[in-house]
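Hi support team,

I'm opening this ticket because the web form for multi-chain structure prediction keeps timing out on my end. I have pasted the exact lines I submitted so you can reproduce it. The total is 1073 residues across four entries, so I didn't expect it to be a heavy job. Is there a limit I'm missing, or should I split the entries? Thanks in advance, R.K.
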Amino acid sequence: MENIYLPKLAEIKEIIQETADTKTIRLTIDGGSIDFLPGQFGEFSFIGEGESTFGFSSSPLRKEYFEFSFRSSGRATTGINSLNQGDKIAFRGPYGNYFDTSKMKGKDLVFVGGGIGMAPVKSIMEYCLDERDDYGKITILYGARSVGDLLYKGIFDEWKKYKNTEVIITVDPGGETPDWTGKVGFVPTVLEQLPLKGENSVAIVCGPPIMIKFALKSLEEKMGFDKSNIITTLENRMKCGLGKCGRCNVGSVYVCKDGPVFTAKELESLPNDF
Amino acid sequence: MEDKDVKKEEHKGRKHVEDSQGDPRIIAFVCNWCTYSGADLAGTSRMKYSDNVRVIKLPCTGRIDPLFIVEAFKKGAKGVLVSGCHPGDCHYTSGNYHSRRKYATFRDLLGYLGVDLDRVEFSWVSASEGNKWVSIINEFTDKIKSLPGKSTDIFTKK
Amino acid sequence: MANTKTDEKLQKIAKDLLESGEVSLVIGYAKGSNLQRMRPVFITKAEDAGKLSFNPHAVQDLAVFLKKPEVKKFGKIGIVVKGCDEKAVNALIQEYQISRDNIKIIGMECNGVIRQSLADKGETNLSESAVYDKCLICEEHIPVLYDFLIESEEPKLVLSGNVKPYSGIEKLESMSAEEKNAFWAKEFDKCIKCYACRQACPLCYCSRCIVEKNMPQWIDTNSEETGNAQWNLIRAYHLSGRCIGCGECERACPVNIPLMLINEKMAKDVYNMFGYKSGLDINAKPVFGVFSESDFNDFIK
Amino acid sequence: MEEKYFEISAENLKKFVDSIIADNFEVIAPTDKDGGTFYGKISRFEEANLDILLPKMSYKEYLLPKTETLLEYSFSGVDTEIKDGLEAVAGANEKRVIFGGRPCDAGAGPIMEKVFNWDYKDEFFNERFKNLTIVSIACEKPDNYCFCTEMQLSPESSYGSDILLKKAEGKYFAVVTSEKGLNLIEPYINLFKETAKAQVPADKDWKKLFEIERTKSFLDKNFEHNYFQDRFLSCIGCGVCTYTCPTCHCFDIQDEGNLKEGRRIRNWDSCQFGVFTLHTSGHNPRVTQGDRYRQRLMHKFKIYSEKFDKYLCVGCGRCSRNCPEDIDIKEVAKDLADMA
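Hello R.K., no limit was hit. The queue was backed up. Here is the completed structure from your submission:
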């Protein structure tokens, strides 16, 4: 008999303070990463304070560690936030479906991330960058409320080094600092100004609900993306991650099992319950 | 401190949990202005009292939510003392009057639900009453020590 | 079933209120899923006023809906209340949850309501042994505050004194701490933490209940002896001096925990200590909002 | 296993129950206590109340306890030790018999079993479910809140029961559907008389009030229907419907302990609570009680059947009987069917 709720202990290899209240934590189990696919998630916990659900934010091809980004806000995340390098985090996973890269091969890719929603996008994005030759042009658009709210600031330049890859970073109007050299504007607005075409392209979008709503609209209506070529991830409240506890249920899907990755087409068939 | 910070402190504390000395544990919630100063006076006057007590200082007895008492019992305290300024002496003019109503009711409820009322104590100790503080703590500790091992409470597993 | 005179009066008042636009919603009772059951009904159109009805099966305390955000949206509300329920309205006004100006109280003279457990078995007669304990000690057969009053056609309840309401309280008071502990341990063991007591209570209106706060986790989440005891203790404490005795918590409890033995006891003791009864006066300050220098002091060293 | 049929006199049934109790089986039966009738342990046959239609609560807690320890943990210095909670569950219910429940309650087990096994296997549930022996009694007089017939069961269904007893002319017929059932009666087989299927009284022709498929087809098409918001304005969100329901299985996972040790537990939870789906960000997909009750209907009559081919409802009517505000789910399901 196997207890599906039993976590493994993972060691914190590195903690990156991304913004005032968000961190990226790199973990190892037995000195390396675990097998997972981009888009999947895990249940992370500081034992004693409860579990929290996060998507992986690292590329599964980078075998030295696996990582997740989180904002400290509730009981479980505050617990995780108090940990230091070398401490242990209890981890269950990976769970859920994933971004199907076989359908993305040979196509132009657009990655759109907003705020902390960039975390799951980063996983699939770095996965594609790691196998750069398999894909066409890659456009990365990442925005946050202000300069201070941008995650992954330290690695923007790393992304830019890949060939045929454009990186656009934007902050909401009013969120810029005097020395800000990136763009200023809401993500969907900036997205619309990009010279993108829907054909032979796949867009991966994740961020706050309102951003997703308008970004999807722009991609579909202005740029002619097919609904099945726009992929996003749903973030529902979850407890078990195993399709049992009933919490993430939307329409006939359990987001934790049948998701979290959905195409815009699949989302269309779900009731407005998320 | 915000709740979050309290939590953070608690987590830091986790790593050096040692077997506590001074069983049975008694928690004293005291007000900053009178009882804490009273206890301070006892200390500076080199008076000795039982080391079973752990003092938690709050601004006023009005801030001492009955939930704190429950929490102390939950975490394994054998006795809980709440102490503050004498009626009329509250630094905030009426905090202790309000809390007196609360505790009168709460104590009544505890008793009705079958908690041994010897395990909760309330007192007024002023800043000049170092002696009273010492005697209250000592008497309370003796009382707690004399209670039978499985003295009734509803907060911990039987 | 045909309308009684009471029903007709009630319907007329509701119709007038809705037609004149004085209220946009009337909360009342309608016939329920069987003849011995009534259910809440929400009337927004004057022509639907005919659904309203009242009889000794109207057990629900409709004041509970006044805390619901979906209901608050209606603004001005008319509500059908029995004497006990009306005290909940008063308490809500006292605690600034609703405004007297936004509410039209249709008070029903009530001689008691029949226990639902008996009604479901077919009991229809209003008798001493069929009504809730709260009805036996009721002093507000006519609500203390109302805009409209509908007098009862039912005969007054005859009390022989043979049925002693809340007799469990005296019994418990005379027990030792161990016995009380054992009694409540057994009762709380049944608790399944469904929080129906909270939801059914007109005065449990916190937008975020203490059990939903987890930083820190004040109340253990388990529904075993520790978590259950903490929950029931804290809920009882939060209602001390506030509970108006409608008994909805006990009626809603799916595992029959005698919650009113706690609430009534606290109401009684608060009255003895501070001379305060909840829900009688909308201008009175809640008992824990005030103090007296001569308050009960015996327990403090 | 192929069904087997036995005949047993009322007197022998009493002997049978008293014997299994004497042989250290824990027999859970409807019994009068706490001012009502609840499932509880009985120490002799007479304590069982077999006349009551349904106890107030279901016996779900023997399959999915209201609080279950998933794991225990302890800290020493910087090290964390985790102890598997499954160990404590091994062999649970092996010596437990539910006696005198109704076919609706018995049907709940195999229906819930699907969600606990559709990919990851929940061994906490499985171990309990596998070992629990269920002896049900067919209903003679369902009440107005019952609608098992509409829910693809019937007052005489043996689905989910290891043994179904049917009363006829002062004696009982026992339909044994499983090895577990057979094993239970084996030691006392002299109390039973094997008989042929033809001897067992045939099921009555139970009439349906509405077609549940029509309810489903309404739900398929009408997510945003005013009915939900209007009808469930009277819902106070108490969750009694979900807690008393034999098939509602949603749960919450929480950690609980002190600085030295503690445990991770799962507790019953309810879709009727506002915080059930509340996101950290403050966003809540189900804001009104109408949204939440709709979810309950959807989960019972649409989602579960699409996913697992079974409706998540056995038609016991407990949610209607126990609803403090008298929301009758049968009436609601019929309303929806009528509107389809």
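A quick check on our side: Residues 4-339 of chain D form one domain. Let us know if the file doesn't open in your viewer.
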